[in-house]
Specification:
six-stranded mixed beta sheet, Rossmann fold, single chain, alpha/beta, globular, 10 strands, four-stranded parallel beta sheet, 2 domains
Length: 317
């Protein structure tokens, strides 16, 4: 279990490096959703996603202990870019394991930040096994995408900022992948506002945390096929799941078509570009997956790294 003090320390570590992203509001979204929605725009974070926070906190905390010669990570894209960018800023070599079918824009961005990219088949190979082997061979610091206390604490700084700006929220929703964002969010939110209600959101095809909540233990599914490439984790984290199981009320499910509808709505009405994974929590509110009527709802837009060819396809359809 991480504590609120861990998130406070993370906020100090990343101050001046990570962006303090804006909280956005849209009258038209409120009217459609039937509630007041406040969007923490982590799609505008450095590297294009909230993942920058956790990677920054992890690397800086390890540097406080001593030199870090190189770093390694495994990721579908946003964590890859976050680690690569932080490594570049701190002048540390990085190697990132990424799936072959990750959006080309995410692969190219990771390489532009100076990282070496090792590709794998997400449907046949184990990215964590590959990443740990590379880290061992190269004596590199492995930076997990979610199952690490320092990473979780770093992600929780987004909710800390959100609740400092909008303290009287009734709900906070985040997308669910491995659960690191929600774990940090839950600890921060429950400390600052004990009565707040927390809900995570997954794609219908990637419902591992939903099933895990139902059964009370971690469930592993096949790698899900969904347009939300950042939410294709087949199981919740070993460290994140107990935190989320204790603090999160429900896991909501949204379809790929609802992700696209919400993404286009936000782009057209708010002039803000969010990737399918990043819009999951907003989609659950817009499509009223729970009773948010007349409530004040915080939503984390977790990322905005979308391949433009894919975006053109969604707009065309």
């Amino acid at each position: 279990m991480i504590e609120f003090s861990d998130i406070q320390r993370a906020a100090k570590r990343i101050e001046g490096i990570a962006h303090k992203t804006p909280v956005l509001h849209s009258r038209q979204f409120d009217e459609r959703a039937g509630c007041a929605v406040f969007f923490k725009a982590e799609n505008l974070q450095r590297g294009g996603a909230f993942k920058f926070r956790g990677a920054c906190n992890k690397i800086k905390a390890e540097l406080e202990k001593g030199p870090v010669k190189s770093v390694a990570a495994f990721s579908s894209g946003n964590h890859a870019q976050a680690v690569a960018l932080n490594a570049m800023l701190m002048k540390i070599p990085a190697v990132i394991v990424m799936p072959k079918d990750a959006p080309q824009a995410k692969i190219e961005a990771t390489r532009r930040y100076g990282a070496e990219v090792v590709l794998y088949d997400r449907y046949k190979e184990d990215r964590e096994q590959i990443g740990r082997q590379i880290a061992k061979e190269r004596n590199a610091l492995l930076i997990p995408p979610f199952d690490d206390p320092l990473v979780m604490a770093g992600q929780g700084t987004a909710a800390l900022e959100l609740l400092q700006e909008v303290p009287d929220l009734d709900f906070v929703l985040t997308p669910m992948s491995g659960g690191g964002l929600m774990a940090g969010t839950a600890v921060a939110a429950k400390y600052l506002r004990p009565q707040i209600r927390l809900m995570g959101v997954e794609p219908e095809q990637g419902n591992d945390t939903y099933l895990s909540f139902q059964r009370g233990t971690r469930v592993t599914i096949d790698v899900p096929k969904t347009i939300a490439d950042g939410l294709q984790t087949p199981a919740p984290g070993e460290l994140t799941f107990p935190i989320n199981r204790e603090l999160v009320e429900r896991i909501l499910l949204v379809s790929d078509s609802e992700l696209v509808t919400t993404m286009i709505f936000i782009l057209e009405r708010m002039k803000v570009l969010v990737e399918p994974s990043g819009v999951a929590a907003a989609a659950a509110v817009l499509t009223k997956k729970s009773d948010f009527q007349n409530k004040r709802v915080g939503v984390i837009l977790s990322g905005g790294n979308i391949d433009l060819n894919s975006l053109a396809g969604y707009l065309k359809d």
